[in-house]
Specification:
- The protein is an all-beta fold and 507 residues long.
- The chain folds into three domains: 28 residues, no CATH class; 75 residues, Immunoglobulins (Immunoglobulin-like), CATH 2.60.40; 352 residues, Methylamine Dehydrogenase, Chain H.
- It is 1% helix and 42% strand.
- The chain is built from one helix and 40 strands.
- Strands 4, 7, 8, 10, 11 and 12 form a six-stranded mixed sheet that branches.
- The protein starts with a helix and ends in a 28-residue tail after the last strand.
- It comes from Candidatus Geothrix skivensis.
- This is Ig-like domain-containing protein.
- InterPro entries: Ig-like_dom (IPR007110), Ig-like_dom_sf (IPR036179), Ig-like_fold (IPR013783), RCC1/BLIP-II (IPR009091), Reg_chr_condens (IPR000408), Signaling_Regulatory_Domain (IPR051625).
- Keywords: Repeat, Signal.
């Protein structure tokens, strides 16, 4: 040992005397080994990713070994005041999108362990596809909107009048919570309650006080605090948070329910004053379902689409049509309902068997539709009309189709020049939701991918071609998520649409 190394082990006594400590064995110190740091609790169940809509609450949970532990939840690594139990309940708000949550668990002896981080995805919309007459919109869980198909009226909102053969993103200032598509126009309800509109405006359907066409989204002036939208061919309804009903657009048949035939180029209140659970608009008629299950209708009844016993022209104000209704859907010249007894009924034009009652006879009054093609005894979830065809969907996601099939819009594997008068099974497909357009059909699956079939001129199926598809075909690249890994896609409301969040299940 040299002196310099030995001096490294010198220390001063309190008296100031220098003490030299010489150690054998290469100069190792006799200082005691440090006490090991306390070991933190083992986390047996870590927090998992969560997803929710603004206004919902989500819960993060942790399970750790041992007793007497204390807990501190963290947001992006920073302690959350008051969050000190095994569960952290978080009201979902926009500012928390993509935030990371973890928890620090401390044992009584002082050791601590911090869990892995779990993300929060703030969602805005039920993932759906909405078919217009010859263009289509889709909305993802994150409120992104895509459009494709015919664009000659600017209905795609892409600042031109060109068709798109694949889904293309529409630029909006905020996430959307709902989209609707008419004959040649489109609407989007944004997360702040405003409505944006674009496309054909000859009848004032954009609600901006003019009849000027517009190929890009713009706010409907003065229309705020909206929670639900519905579009027909050329007219629209909106429900505000206070329950009031606002209407605008084409009104030649009285489909706005205002007791006249004058178009409205700006939204006006319809003072019906009935609490609503569902709205659907056809070409020239409108259907409302009250919270008590009454079905009300107005507009054209020339083909029996209001379900009244004879053709009596137009109804300029809302008339009670029937009761015991869960949901109603209108498209062109016929209407369908899902009744509280679980059965489907239809009325109106039926020349192609779209009412599925086994005949091609137009009906002036509600007739029970067939449910063949679905598992016997299964619960019917929705009835979805297109222009001349109809799909039925049960709670297991099975689909049966009836009506016009010239372009393969029934999805049965081959087109047909003869009408299908009763529902036939669409095999090999389990859907989460379904929408039908003029001569095309769309389904989104439990994994939030999309399939389409039927007429494909101008790329309205979104598969990059103009080839008609008689069987469901994947829409490449269109994914209606995301939802975090390990989180199930958001559960839909039942048929209807005007629920607490006003998110429709089927269009």
């Amino acid at each position: 040992m040299n002196l310099s190394r030995a001096l490294s082990h010198c220390h001063l006594l309190a008296s100031g005397a220098l003490v030299l400590t010489l150690a054998c064995g290469g100069g190792s110190s006799s200082t005691p080994a440090p006490t090991p740091a306390p070991i933190g609790p083992s986390i047996t169940t870590a927090p998992t990713a969560q997803a929710g809509y603004p206004g919902d609450s989500v819960t993060y949970r942790v399970v750790a070994a041992g007793s007497g532990n204390t807990y501190q939840w963290l947001r992006n690594g920073t302690a959350i005041s008051g969050a000190t139990t095994t569960a952290y309940v978080l009201p979902v708000q926009r500012a928390d999108d993509q935030a990371r949550y973890s928890v620090r668990v401390t044992a009584p002896a002082g050791g601590s362990t911090t869990s892995s981080e779990a993300i929060l995805d703030v969602l805005y919309a039920d993932p759906v596809v909405v078919a217009g007459h010859d263009h289509t919109l889709a909305i993802t869980t994150k409120g992104k909107v895509y459009a494709w198909g015919v664009g000659g009226n600017g209905q795609l909102g892409l600042a031109d009048y060109q068709a798109r053969m694949v889904p293309t993103a529409v630029t909006l200032p905020l996430p959307a919570v709902q989209v609707t598509a008419g004959w040649g126009h489109s609407l989007a309800l944004l997360s702040d309650g405003r409505v944006f509109a674009w496309g054909n405006n000859v009848n004032g359907q954009l609600g901006d006080g003019s009849s000027a066409m517009r190929n890009f989204p713009a706010a409907v002036p003065g229309l705020t605090n909206v929670v639900f939208l519905a579009s027909g061919y050329n007219h629209n309804f909106a429900v505000k948070g206070d329950g009031t009903l606002w209407v605008w657009g084409y009104n030649a048949s009285g489909q706005l329910g205002l007791q006249d035939r004058s178009n409205r180029t700006s939204p006006v209140e319809n003072t019906l004053g009935v609490p609503l659970s569902d709205i659907s608009l056809g070409s020239n008629h409108s259907l409302l379902v009250s919270t008590s299950g009454s079905l009300l209708g107005c507009g054209s009844h020339g083909y029996g689409q209001l379900g009244l016993p004879s053709s009596t022209g137009d109804y300029l104000g809302f008339t009670t049509l029937t009761s015991g209704v869960v949901s109603a859907r209108a498209f062109n010249l016929f209407s369908v309902i899902l009744a509280s007894n679980g059965l489907p009924y239809g009325t109106g034009e039926n020349v192609y068997g779209q009412l599925g009652d086994g005949s091609p006879t137009t009906r002036y009054g509600w007739v029970q539709m067939g449910t063949g093609g679905l598992t016997a005894g299964s619960t019917l979830a929705a009835v979805i009309p297109g222009e001349w065809h109809t799909h039925l969907v049960n709670a297991q996601g099975q689909v049966a189709s009836t009506g016009y099939n010239w372009y393969g819009q029934l999805g049965l594997g081959a087109p047909s020049t003869t009408a299908t008068l009763t529902p036939q099974p669409l095999t090999g497909l389990t859907v989460q939701g379904l929408s039908a357009g003029s001569q095309s059909s769309y389904a989104w699956l439990p994994d939030l991918t999309v399939k389409a079939w039927g007429y494909n001129a101008n790329g309205r199926l979104g598969d990059g071609t103009a080839t008609d598809r008689p069987a469901p075909t994947t829409v490449p690249g269109l994914f209606l998520g995301p939802v975090p890994t390990g989180v199930a896609p958001p559960a839909h409301q039942g048929p209807g649409g005007l629920g607490a969040k006003a998110r429709p299940i089927y269009e």
